[in-house]
Every structure is written in structure tokens, then in C-alpha cells.
Write a structure and sequence with these properties.
The chain is mainly α. Helices cover 68% and strands 0% of the residues. The N and C termini lie far apart (59 Å).
Length: 285
């Protein structure tokens, strides 16, 4: 005889399978720019004992593969569906941690950056979740894409030194520095991959160097307010390369409740969504 606990477990299992089946059905016909052509092949290369840098579009540190490995173990379309579900769950978790209301959630969800990233299977939401971790481990996630985590690098460098001197800075930065050094030693191709991710790339939507003053403003504000979220907005304006989806970092930065001291977050996010759609449609990004 089934107990009440088993009934709940059975219901949860059926719901999970239904979500997976629904995601596979919905995601299968959608266009994809990243999972099919870049991330799944990179995971498959590692599993086959090959270099992930044999995949032309893979430019991230190799521990990106560890992040995506659970999805790459599944058949192609199932892995993408699970990735899609996980991305939405991460977005919901970020909204919960920032105490965002329903209107704010709707505004961000309707933005071309979030929708485009979800459809392209872009891992930016996974990387942005690094803001929820401690600085030591958060940097390992955030610097999977320096164009997203660059601002946090400077922010944590400043405050780790100010709060605890050299020893504190070494504790916080040792894992990510060691990670990059080991990666470069094991995969020398990473150097050329990073250097050749240039303004020539057809997916590049950077406004560098014109965005530098805005990046400096956000970094100054983040340090002055001691608010790491605001530092998320720095990277997209300091980077010579990023896709349009990565401007989502600015929107996530402005989800912090401190923004309410100046403007309602839901109103701000709707304004940003309208601006982003206007830019995208005008310039056909």
C-alpha cells in the first residue's frame, strides 16, 4: 500500500517527466545557435578524449564543459531541453534571491536578451548565477565569460584587498587564477581562441570603447555602494567582444533592490526591454 509520501514522490516524478517531454517537444523545432554547434560538440569531444577547442565556436575555459556535462550526457535534443529548463529555473531563482516582483519578472522575460539567449541555448544565465556564490567560487563561474564577469573581478579585487589585504585577495582569487594557468598549460589552443575572439566576429555587438565611461560609472557605483550586483553591469561595457544576449548582465545587475531608491525596478526593466527591442529591430541585430 502506497504511503502519502510515495504518492507525492510519484506525482513529482510524473510531473518531471511531463516537463521534460514538453520541453523536448517545444524546443525541438526552435532555431539554435550554441548548443548544437558549440557546447554539445565540446562536451562530446571531452568524453571522447579530444580537445574541446577542436570545436570552432568554443572559446571558454575548459571548466565550462564541466558545467554543461550533465546535459551533454543525454541525446542531443533531450540535453538541449534539459538545458532550457535549467536556464529558466536559474532565472526564477535569481528573481527570488533579488526579491523581484511579478511585473519585473515579466519585463525581463520579454526582453530580447533573455528570450534570444534561451532560444540560442546560451549559457549566460548559468554564468550570471555566479553572483549568488561566494566570491571565491563565484569568480570561477563568472569568468567563464570575462565579458560578463570582468566587473566582479575588479570589484572583488578592490574589496578583498581593502577588507583583508594580500592574504584575503589570494584566498579569493587563487582558484580562478590556478584554473586559468592549468587550462593554458593543458590546452595551449585556449590562448589563440581568446585572442582571436575579435571585433571581426559577425556575432559581436560590443560598443567598446564608447561604453567605457558607462562601465567606469557602474564600477564606481558598485564599489561606493559595496554592491556586487551593480558590478555585473560593468563587463558588457568594458569588453571588445560580446553577443547581444550578454547585455542581460546589465538587466540582472539592476534587479537589486537598491535600485528602488531611485526608480521602481519593474518600471526600469520595462523601459530597458523597450529600448533593447527598439535597438534590435532598428539595427536588425
Amino acid at each position: 500500500m502506497l504511503t502519502s509520501f510515495n504518492y507525492r514522490k510519484l506525482f513529482a516524478s510524473i510531473l518531471l517527466m511531463a516537463l521534460l517531454a514538453g520541453a523536448v517537444y517545444l524546443v525541438f523545432p526552435l532555431p539554435d545557435a550554441d548548443w548544437y554547434g558549440t557546447y554539445d560538440p565540446a562536451v562530446k569531444n571531452i568524453l571522447a578524449g579530444k580537445s574541446p577547442y577542436d570545436v570552432p565556436g568554443f572559446h571558454n575555459p575548459p571548466w565550462m564543459v564541466l558545467l554543461l556535462l550533465p546535459f551533454g550526457l543525454f541525446p542531443l535534443h533531450v540535453g538541449r531541453a534539459l538545458f532550457f529548463i535549467a536556464s529558466i529555473l536559474i532565472f526564477i531563482f535569481i528573481l527570488w534571491k533579488t526579491e523581484s516582483n511579478a511585473l519585473t519578472a515579466v519585463a525581463v522575460f520579454l526582453s530580447p536578451t533573455l528570450l534570444g539567449g534561451l532560444l540560442a541555448s546560451n549559457p549566460d544565465l548559468f554564468i550570471l548565477s555566479g553572483i549568488l556564490l561566494s566570491p571565491t567560487w563565484g569568480l570561477l563561474v563568472l569568468l567563464l565569460k570575462p565579458q560578463i564577469g570582468m566587473g566582479l573581478f575588479f570589484y572583488y579585487l578592490y574589496w578583498s584587498w581593502k577588507d583583508g589585504g594580500l592574504k584575503n585577495s589570494l584566498i579569493i582569487f587563487a582558484p580562478v587564477v590556478i584554473g586559468y594557468l592549468v587550462s593554458l598549460a593543458l590546452f595551449p589552443a585556449l590562448i589563440s581562441k581568446l585572442l582571436h575572439k575579435s571585433a571581426i566576429d559577425p556575432w559581436n555587438r560590443s560598443i567598446f570603447p564608447y561604453g567605457i565611461p558607462l562601465g567606469i560609472f557602474f564600477l564606481w557605483l558598485a564599489i561606493r555602494k559595496k554592491n556586487p550586483y551593480l558590478a555585473l553591469a560593468v563587463g558588457p561595457f568594458f569588453s571588445p567582444y560580446l553577443t547581444y544576449y550578454s547585455y542581460l548582465a546589465v538587466q540582472i545587475a539592476l534587479l537589486h533592490k537598491d535600485v528602488e531608491k531611485v526608480i521602481r525596478r519593474d518600471l526600469l526593466q520595462f523601459i530597458l526591454t523597450v529600448i533593447l527591442w527598439s535597438i534590435m529591430l532598428t539595427f536588425r541585430l
